[in-house]
Fold this protein.
Amino acid sequence: MSNAALNPPSTPDLYDADLYLWTQGQAALLRAGRWQEVDWPRLAEEIESVGGSQKSEIRNRLIIVLQHLLKWEFQPRKRKYGWRSSIVEQRLQIEGLLDLSPSLTAWPETALDKAYRIARTRAAEETGVDERSLPEACPYSLEQIMDHRFYPGIVESDIV
């Protein structure tokens, strides 16, 4: 670690002035065992925000999967390879995030209702479909949403 990280430039509040430099300085202080110099309250806040970011990322990816599943189901004549590709990618990313943080395994179920409401609005906006024509409650179970063989309106034998 550089000397600059251990002895960051004097600023009124480095945390507000340069968050990246602040994080590097805090990491260097921890590695050096300089506990009394660590900004403990903000460090705790930043650690908590990492978990919040993971939850937010899972929810955002769930929104995208749902949005494309809705478009897939309710606009069968306009299906695009990109929708399917996005569904696959978001499923894989959610799985990867849950592998990194198994304690968040229940989070997608918790986030599902809100994610669906957002996905429904976005799908309607993107397709020009009247939002009222889309189901008010999520029509898919979490198991279906994450199932790589599930595409609404297609039987499994149609999936290549």
Remarks:
- The chain is about 65% helix and 0% strand.
- Residues 40-74 form the longest helix (35 residues).
